[in-house]
Write a structure and sequence with these properties.
With 405 residues, this protein is α/β, with parallel strands linked by helices. The protein contains 15 helices and 15 strands. Helix 3 packs parallel to helix 4 and helix 14 crosses helix 15. It starts with a strand and ends with a strand. The structure holds 3-methyl-2-oxobutanoic acid (KIV) and zinc ion. Zinc ion (ZN) binds next to loops.
Length: 405
């Protein structure tokens, strides 16, 4: 099956960074931007320069630091915003101005207090102004998925005519469902007469937990740029998580025939760097990068994993940069995992000793969440004064598997 090349637009440093608790200093932004370059994203949206002096400086520093990715800056459809964005990205080897205005009546009437005509004029003028600075101009119709279709198509046609090369249609408030998003992109791309002159882009928020699914639906319906963030950070419930979208296309290439320039082994290091810079950890059960994404405690699962990892893992941890699978000893663990861990620690137990150790381990696990190696060694000493301690090098876990707490 032929694969379509997707453009990966990372907005961790803009949509992600503007969420409460995720702000970064300029130096931190540059460090993160370098990691995004190592990860292989095509575009780094570095900030919103008109928002503050610091943000403008940070975008400029990122523009100076990166070699391969396009550096994008956000701007409202207003002359000062465009000029500031242009200043900030000027040092970049390849740059993009990303200008946006809301197109839904709700946003136009209640937030911007603007008519549809005035918003259309502002959009066209902003794109023309941006084209005076760079040939790579992205236009976003904020709240696109809740906009009147006829009006939205008119705006898109007009901004492409004015020089926009990418058209982003955000599900700004994460309201859509995957089938709706697919129908939306199919209909818009089919109706806009000059649609073939622009790349269509998807930017989904996660208010209903559907951002990754909605992004994939948009790609299936003709979008060729996906906007996402590391760890899914972003406004409110966040944006589509880059690691989820990318791994879905890798693991289910049979259904999602897309290729990207992402080096998946850099996914976990990117996630880790972001959590250390922001001091905000990801939830333990977060797909791909959460602490439990490759951890198993239940006895049946551990037994399956010890026999063949494919029983309970659909991807290899090392392929996303996670050092290894962890088999966690706890009250749900079985004999097989206890035996394996004892062996790895260098103890040979008889059948009776193992049974006794297992019973002790499960009753201790009723009183504490996890069983550490020290706990297990204490139990082994109790059940068998004669348990032989083997050379320490036998304690190395088997390839790909480790035990953790
Ligand atoms: O969610 C949104 O609509 C945005 C735009 C500025 C692209 O972040
Ligand atoms: Zn957004």
């Amino acid at each position: 099956m032929d694969k379509c090349r997707l453009v990966v637009f990372d907005t961790t440093l803009r949509d992600g960074e503007q969420a409460p608790g995720f702000s970064l200093t300029t130096d931190e932004k540059v460090r993160m931007a370098r990691q995004l370059e190592a990860l292989g994203v095509d575009i780094v949206e570095a900030g919103f320069p008109i928002a503050s002096e610091d943000d403008a400086e940070a975008v400029r520093k990122v523009a100076l630091a990166l070699e391969r990715p396009i550096v994008a800056a956000l701007a409202r459809c207003a002359p000062n915003d465009i000029d500031r964005a242009a200043w900030a990205i000027a040092p970049a080897r390849r740059s993009r101005i990303h200008t946006f205005i809301a197109t839904s009546d709700l946003h136009l009437d209640r937030k911007l207090r603007m008519t549809r005509e005035a918003a259309l004029d502002a959009a066209v003028a902003a794109v023309r102004r941006a084209r005076g600075y760079t040939s790579d101009v992205q236009f976003s119709a904020e709240d696109a998925t809740r906009s009147d279709r006829d009006y939205l198509c008119k705006v898109i046609e007009s901004v492409i005519e004015a020089g926009a090369t990418t058209i982003n249609l955000p599900d700004t408030v994460g309201y859509s469902t995957p089938d709706e998003v697919a129908e939306f992109f199919t209909s818009i791309i089919g109706r806009v007469p000059n649609a073939d002159r622009a790349v269509f882009s998807t930017h989904c928020h996660d208010d209903l937990g559907l951002a990754a699914a909605n992004s994939l639906a948009a790609l299936g319906a003709g979008a060729r740029q996906v906007e996402c963030t590391i760890n899914g950070i972003g406004e409110r419930a966040g944006n589509a998580s880059l690691e989820e979208v990318i791994m879905a296309t890798r693991i289910r290439a049979d259904r999602l025939p897309f290729e990207t320039s992402i080096n998946t082994r850099e996914l976990y290091p990117s996630s880790q760097l972001l959590t250390s810079l922001t001091n905000e950890s990801v939830q333990a059960n977060k797909a791909i990068v959460g602490r439990n994404a490759f951890a198993h405690e239940a006895g049946i699962h551990q037994d399956g994993m010890l026999k063949d990892r494919r029983t309970y893992e659909i991807m290899r941890p090392e392929d996303v940069g996670v050092p290894r699978t962890t088999l966690v000893l706890g009250k749900h663990s079985g004999r097989h995992a206890v035996q394996k861990r004892c062996e790895q620690l260098g103890y040979e137990l008889t059948r009776q000793q193992l049974d006794a150790a297992y019973r002790r381990m499960t009753s201790l696990a009723d009183t504490q969440k996890h069983i550490t190696d020290a706990d297990l060694e204490g139990i082994i000493a109790e059940v068998s004064g004669t348990a032989r301690r083997a050379a320490r090098e036998f304690a190395v876990p088997e390839a790909g598997y480790g035990f953790g707490v």
